[in-house]
Model the fold of this input.
Amino acid sequence: MIKSTSIAPSNIAFIKYWGKKDSSLKLPLNGSVSMNLSGMTTTTTVEFKKDFTEDEILIENDDRKKTKDRVSGHLDKIRQITEVDMKAKVVSRNNFPSSTGLSSSSSAFAALTLAAVNALNLHLSEKDLSILARQGSGSACRSIPDGFVEWLEGEDSNSSYSYSLHPPEYFDIADVVIVVSDKKKDISSTEGQILADTSPFMATRLANIKDKIIKIKQIINKKDFSSFGQLIESEALEMHAIMLTSNPPLIYWQPGTINIIKLVKKMRTEGLEVYFSLNTGQDVHIICKRKDVNKLEGYFRKIEEVKRIIVNYPSVGARLSDNHLF
Ligand code: PMV
Done:
């Protein structure tokens, strides 16, 4: 095979990855736990050919040289493993806005990794695919396995990978993403993460994070939605506390972000059990029980600063597709 297509989901972390101990291998300072998202996917087709003289990379809505160089760099890694020196054509499309903090790099590098590896007939285990995707973008390693996923911190490249804790249908929850602006963030998570340990609070975060991971897994095992919501909200705010107190500070929020957070709290006092999470960006992830999705959507449709609502359920990880983009 020489041409292959993959679809991979974005993911939302409940316990976050923020800070690296090795930035070229993308080894994290701590492990993390996430869920794959059914409504936010990247589809990527990769073709290798002897007569291509250079990589041709076409990413919908992103023509930046730095993005193309990152994709080519990742292909180089795969070419090295397979000892192939053919150049490639890559076409990639997201079904959601990119670079606004919706973790498009996770779905993008998971899809790219699976499509490229398969195009070159390399048969990797899920673990090895996850290790390879991690080197494209850290959080991409969590978009390879299905459903609810743990990324092990590990000690080296071989031990830092993701695996599935539970299949998608295990926990009946949803992630309703409220897009408050399509504006691209000015500092990418790659640049932001370098600053993590300039925050005076980072040491405290790292001292407690292993316990937090144990706790979230116990809570998910018990399907205890209230404890789950409380823990993921405080974790999202803790990560933003690190960002806000970095040097220089990182402020990813827009006024709409704060308004939505306040509305989430108000909805709870009115009896609807919903909780928020945030990544690097202005948009807000609202985690609710599956049965409450329609009510939630109806409520937010009426709010002025809401530009778009994306409903997600827990999803499978990266998979192959026959629908090539070219
Ligand atoms: O993989 P990156 O470099 O896009 O980092 C993602 C970081 C957060 O989304 C903020 C947290 C996480 O664990 O997904």
Notes: The CA atoms of residues 175 and 300 lie 13 Å apart. The longest strand covers residues 32-49.
